[in-house]
Amino acid sequence: MRELSLNVMDVAQNSVRAEASLVTITVTESDKDDNLTISIEDNGCGMTEEQVQQVIDPFFTTRTTRKVGLGVPLFKMSAEQTGGSFLIKSEVGRGTVTTASYVKSHVDMTPLGDINSTVEILIRCNPDIDFVFVHGTDLGSFTLDTRELREVLGDVSLDTPDVLEWIHAFLEEQTQIIYGGVN
Amino acid sequence: MKSLAELQAIRDKARANVALRKENPNAARVLVGMATCGIAAGARPVLNAFVEEIAKRGLSDDIVVTQTGCIGICQYEPVVEIEVPGEEKVTYVKMSPERVAKVVNDHLVNKNVVTEFTIGAYTE
Questions:
Q1: Edge-to-edge, what's the strand order for the sheet holding B63-68?
Q2: Which regions of B1-118 does DSSP assign to beta strands (E)?
Q3: Which residues in chain B have their CB less than 8 angstroms from residue A74's CB?
Q4: Which of A2, A159, B27, B82 could form an SS bridge with A127, CB 3.0 to 4.6 Å?
Q5: Does A59 touch chain B (CB under 8 A)?
């Protein structure tokens, strides 16, 4: 993957398939600590310990259309190749938390890329699922919580074009602030 | 600054138009393959290009852009399926953002399938 944001989009699809109703994506960047951490948490069906071991194996997949499942292994590799770490915590019936931690300055660090686009597409394509996106840097952080938007919107769907446009503008504005006006 | 008040105004406007949007049985569907293979091959910019082109033409109420999983032809990703009610599904392969405008214009607007981008053109 050329961007970590693409890994996030890919792994978040697993949460969707696990029938999660809430997916929380947290990205914390710190130049001070030379760290970037991404976590994807869902309240989907969860996995057994054995299944967790299987999903980090590239030749395991629950799909029937092909024989490989590269989403999680690629995400794991992207973190470990920077000297970072990768962890999946899962409980059947409760959900899964996938956390990847990166050493930002490492030569093999993949850029985060357009994480806002990932969040927007996830919302657009799964308007019935709630997403919480938290993005923080050394300068501050912001949260987009679709549950709050839904409270305002009532019966108006999140995939209404004007709503998606609002989300796009909100993410862009907030991202500029946490990057100190440079993005 | 984007405010929730703005969102309220959007809600009121959307409610006024809701009949138009929700009850449109003739809406075409653009399905972009978004499994690992599709994403790695560049499906995200393709999806964004469809959204932009469709919005630019004011067709957002008539065409729904969404994602699908892997349909098993990973070597042809990014794969885009177009479903127009009453017509056979068309599968476009090796899509790129540059090809999107032509597909929207020729297929979705003028009802002419862009044969050279379909899977048939590659497998024949």
A1: B63-68, B28-33, B80-83, B90-92
A2: 28-33, 63-68, 80-83, 90-92
A3: 36, 40
A4: A159
A5: no
Q: Which residues contact B98 (CB under 8 A, 6 or more apart)?
A: none
The closest alpha carbon to B38, from B82, B73, B64, B89, belongs to B73
Which region holds residue A154: left if phi is over 0, alpha if psi is between -120 and 50, else beta?
left
Amino acid at B101: A
Instruction: Determine the pLDDT at residue B3.
Output: 87
A94 or A66: which carries more pLDDT confidence?
A: A94
Helix H or strand E encompassing B81:
strand B80-83
**Cα–chain-centroid distance for residue A10?**
8
**Bond preceding residue A161 cis, omega within 30 of 0:** no
- Residues B36-75 have pLDDT tens digits of 999 999 999 999 999 999 999 999 888 999 999 888 899 9
Single-letter code of the amino acid located at B3:
S
Domain made up of B25-123: CATH architecture: 3-Layer(aba) Sandwich (3.40)
C-alpha to C-alpha distance for A172 and A179, rounded to whole angstroms: 11
Give chain A's domains with CATH numbers.
4-178 (3.30.565.10)
* Residue in this structure with the two tokens 């760290």, named with its chain if needed: A35
